[in-house]
Amino acid sequence: MNDNLKIIGTTSSAGGSFKDVKITGECKFAGDVNCEKLNLTGNANIAGNLHMKQMKITGEIALEGSLEGDSLHGQGEIKAASVKIDKLHLYGNLDVKGDCEGEKLQISGALSVAGLLSAEHLEIKLFGPSSAKEVGGSILTIKKSKTGRLLHMMKPTSKIMFEAGLIEGDAIDLISTKASMVRGERVIIGPDCEIEMVEFRDTLEVHKHATVKHQVKI
Q1: Is the Cβ–Cβ distance between 162 and 146 less than 8 Å?
Q2: DSSP 8-class letter at 146
Q3: Of 39, 14, 10, whose CA–CA distance to 27 is shortest?
Q4: Domain of life here (predicted)?
Q5: What is the tens place of the pLDDT at every residue in 135-172?
Q6: Contact at 8 Å (CB) between 92 and 111?
Q7: Rounded mean pLDDT of 202-217?
Q8: Spatial contact of 90 and 73, defined as CB atoms under 8 Å apart
């Protein structure tokens, strides 16, 4: 049985395999970290990969490698080369250099995914400008949060939009989204959307304050 790791204050670690990891403060790991549970209150930097089953975060974590696990919830900022989490519930910022995938992803905040953002159930509440190269899944919902609207009033120069090249799913419901292609079974294009092309198999609804240049039933 691996030992627990408890960190209070500012320190560094070589990394390794642990049962439970609890960080209150700041810690830098020189290598990969594997654990059952990780509880972070503060900041963590990992010069490698993090593989865990459960993680709770209040603060910031930055990885040079991949972040993988069963569930993660909390608030703060996550930066990683890639993310693969079955259930992710995050209030804050998510910055992924590659792909981000899971079964159920709920993000309230801002996100930047350089590759594919995919989930069976994806729900994004926008607090700030966000983007992904491609979005795929079954049930996809992107909307602007009420708090996001307040932030938008405070910062009139920054337009809160979600931008993607391709968005593809079964049931798609979009607000404040800019995309080259949206392809789905049942598609709702809500207010403040700018879409080049929509391909739909069953139904399409377009809000009067949305722009869809081309639409095709397939």
Answers
A1: no
A2: H
A3: 10
A4: Bacteria
A5: 999 999 999 877 644 454 445 446 799 999 999 999 99
A6: no
A7: 96
A8: yes
Residue of 48, 49, 54 whose CA lies nearest to 21: 54
Residue with tokens 């209040």: 58
> For tokens 């092309």, what's the residue?
197
Residue 133: left (phi > 0), alpha (psi -120 to 50), or beta?
alpha
Alpha helices of 56-213 — where are they, by DSSP H?
146-154
Average pLDDT value over all residues in the chain: 94
Q: In the numeric block, which tokens belong to residue 9?
A: 């204050």
Q: How many helices (H) and strands (E) in the chain?
A: 1, 13
What is the Cα–Cα distance from 18 to 2, expressed in whole angstroms? 5
Rounded-to-integer distance, Cα 197 and Cα 215, Å: 6
Beta-bridged to residue 6, according to DSSP, are 22
pTM above 0.85?
yes
Structure-token pair, residue 161: 């939009």
Among 83, 30, 79, 75, residue whose Cα is nearest residue 52:
83
Give per-residue pLDDT as tens, 33-76. Answer: 999 999 999 999 999 999 999 999 999 999 999 999 999 999 99
Instruction: Determine whether 29 is exposed, middle or buried from the number of CB atoms within 10 Å of its CB (0-12, 13-18, 19+).
Output: buried
DSSP code at position 149: H
DSSP notation for 63-84:
ESSEEEEEEEEEEEEEEESEEE
Placement of tokens 């509440």 in the chain: 125
